[in-house]
What we know:
The chain is mainly alpha-helical and 77 residues long. It has helices at residues 11-31, 35-41, 47-57, 61-76.
Amino acid sequence: MEPQPGIASFIPLLIMTIPIVIFNVFLSKRKGRNPIVYGALSLIPLVNFYLAVYLASLTDKSISDKIDKIITLLESR
């Protein structure tokens, strides 16, 4: 009977997942989304890559706020 690989086979997954989780948390803060939810969802393999692409495609919260401010200023004239 062959020995089971154990935790050693889990280490490469962690090495690849942890930077993506950190990236998605910072990106979700910048985009105005809940970083806890997106951080937890980023722990799921393959989902984390799709979340990174999705978050990167969203408009930044600061840009949305500036556009809203411009619209309210134009409407008040």
